[in-house]
Structure formats: C-alpha cells, structure tokens
Amino acid sequence: MQSRHYPSNNYDWRVPDIVSLMMRWILNRKPVSTSASWNRYATRRLLSLLSCTVLLLVARLHIMGAKLPVFTRFDNPASVSGWPTRHLTYQYLIALNLWLLIFPCDLCCDWTMGTIPLVESVLDERNLATLCLYVFLCAVCYVAAFSSNRTHSVALIM
C-alpha cells in the first residue's frame, strides 16, 4: 500500500513483527532501532492526533460547562436499571448501532421512552446479536494480526 508521504513499510507492522523485535531486544539486551523516517512520521501523526483530541475535549468542556449530562429515566431507561439489565442493554446497543450503521433502514428520530426495550435477562434472544458481534470482532482482529497476507492485514487494520 503506497502512500505519497509515507514509505510503504510503515504500515506493515503486525504482531509477528513486533514479537520478533521484542525477542531480538530481549536476547541481545540492547534496543532494536527502527528507521528514522518511521519515527519522524509516526511522531508527527501521533502529535497531530493528540492535539486534535485535546482540542475537542477542551471545546466539549467549554460547551457543557464542565458538567456531566443529566439523563432522566425516560431519556435513558438503561442508565437507571440495575445489574445485569444495564450492562446487557448497553452491550446490545453496540450491536444494534453497528447493524443500523450497515443497514440504516430502521432509523428513528427519537430513541427515548422505551423505543428499544431493555435486555433484562441473559436468556434474552437479543444477546445472540451481541455475542455474534464480539465473535466477529475477535475473528477480524485475529486475521489482522496473524494473517500471512499483508494486504489483507493492512486493510483490516486500517
């Protein structure tokens, strides 16, 4: 994957490569150097990401007045529910939002007032969606980390 500003080998870091570097460092007892260009470009990217993050956090604190939002029971019924209802519902909402991101046919302008029923039991069938989501994410991470095809690994990591 060629880029105009960065050498192509900057994106080829994966778990086997990192493990190999760590093993060389442990066995030789001296630091393993990487290319100077990678350090310069990586440092520039990390600093820009860090500064944008800090800027967004400061803007949010300024807008909100350094107070946390207050939700009522009608706005967010899961937030006032006990364990395990709150945790199961929040995990299901991740799977539901990913589904809506991929298939936006069931969008709604107002998700309050019990539009999405709470997941109150471990035996609720909606927990299968949550389980499938996490199995899928683990499989993608495994393929990205340990695949011998670097093109697929880089595409999944991106």
Automatic annotation (TrEMBL):
Pfam families: TMTC_DUF1736 (PF08409). Signal peptide: none annotated. One of its GO terms (molecular function) is mannosyltransferase activity. It comes from the Eukaryota. InterPro entries: TMTC_DUF1736. Coiled coil: none annotated. Keywords: Membrane, Repeat, TPR repeat, Transmembrane, Transmembrane helix. Residues 66-137 form the DUF1736 domain. The chain crosses the membrane at residues 128-148. GO terms for cellular component: endoplasmic reticulum. GO terms for biological process: protein O-linked glycosylation via mannose. This is Transmembrane and TPR repeat-containing protein 3-like. The lineage of its organism: Eukaryota, Metazoa, Ecdysozoa, Arthropoda, Hexapoda.
